# Entry
Amino acid sequence: MHEVARDLVGATLLVDGAGGVLVEVEAYAPDDPASHSYRGRTARNAAMFGPAGYAYVYRSYGIHHCLNLVCGPDGEGAAVLVRALEPTHGLETMRERRGVEEVKLLCSGPGRLCEALGVTLVHDGLALDEPPFKLLRREAEPEVVATTRVGITRAVDLPWRYAVRGSDYLSRPVPS
DNA sequence: CAGTGGATGCTCT
DNA sequence: GAGCATCCACTGT
# Structure
């Protein structure tokens, strides 16, 4: 799963033609106390226990949405949280949805990214290789750094956050 | 800059 | 009834 997470950085993700190049993701495993799949399958996280190549979307703090790409074997419950991307497609659409001009603020965070791409619960469980999703293999291999994950209270020390070193579009800078 | 607190809805204890 | 894989506005240096 960690290889998948690392390889996803640099790939291009589009939803209805809006999106960009992934610059920050986090891995979540079934035996990981910070993972939604840790306590087993429920109605909310059902998609996470499905086969790889599907989306798992959930509501966060009652306000935002967060997008995961399921990457474990069918039934395992492993996924990669998409935290930030560098906007390259549909900039004007994303600006309207976000109500912000600055490109750096369009997709630099899981909640912001879902708002910019228009991702909501209706996308939960959809296949990533079918519309409205489009996932393109990366063209060049970026320099990826592994650091600790953001915004969690358990398993805080696991270095399962993968980010492009020095990118201007991260949700937060990587510690030096 | 840093730090704090409110919004808001659903899941699990 | 607590606790979130968050974001933003506001405060005080």
Q: What stands out?
A: The first helix of chain A runs from residue 2 to 8. The domain at 2-164 of chain A is CATH 3.10.300.10 (3-methyladenine DNA Glycosylase; Chain A). The mean pLDDT of chain A is 95.
